[in-house]
Design goal:
It is built from four helices and five strands. With 136 residues, it is an alpha+beta fold. It has one domain (2-134): Heat Shock Protein 90 (2-Layer Sandwich). Helix 1 runs antiparallel to helix 2 (32-53).
Length: 136
């Protein structure tokens, strides 16, 4: 089964993405903690798109497609902004990060910790973040 949502590239619209994904994850059978983790990972991915791919342009769109095929719950998040190479992002030193009270910069790290699989692909006219969580 598939579900689709398109939202404007505005941070105040991220609640729509979180609710859309959380409702689907609950219906799929995930426990509340997993539902919250999935919603947070999607929020982080969309925030990165707004900040980096679209550079805060509020007139762009983010596409979210959920593909549900037990035990796999897959979320594809699409944008048409600047390309991104995830391999250029270093793994943060959390001790160092916390000791300096830094803010931001943990989106990739969080997505990888919260989801079972995180993949990026660049296609001719779009970028896709694929987040996967398995129902155990």
């Amino acid at each position: 089964m598939k579900k689709n949502l398109r939202i404007p590239s505005q941070t105040e619209k991220l609640i729509l993405a979180r609710e859309f994904v959380a409702d689907a994850a609950k219906g799929f059978g995930f426990a509340e903690d997993d539902v919250n983790n999935i919603a947070l990972a999607v929020d982080e991915a969309c925030t990165n798109i707004i900040k980096h791919a679209y550079q805060y342009a509020a007139d762009r769109e983010i596409g979210i497609v959920i593909v549900m095929k037990k035990p796999e719950f897959e979320i594809l998040i699409e944008d048409h902004g600047r390309h991104f190479d995830p391999n250029r992002i270093p793994v943060p030193d959390m001790k160092e990060y916390m000791s300096h009270y830094k803010r931001g910069g943990l989106g990739m790290y969080l997505m990888k910790k919260l989801m079972d699989k995180v993949e990026y692909s660049i296609e001719p006219r779009k970028n896709i973040v694929r987040l996967t969580k398995y129902l155990h």
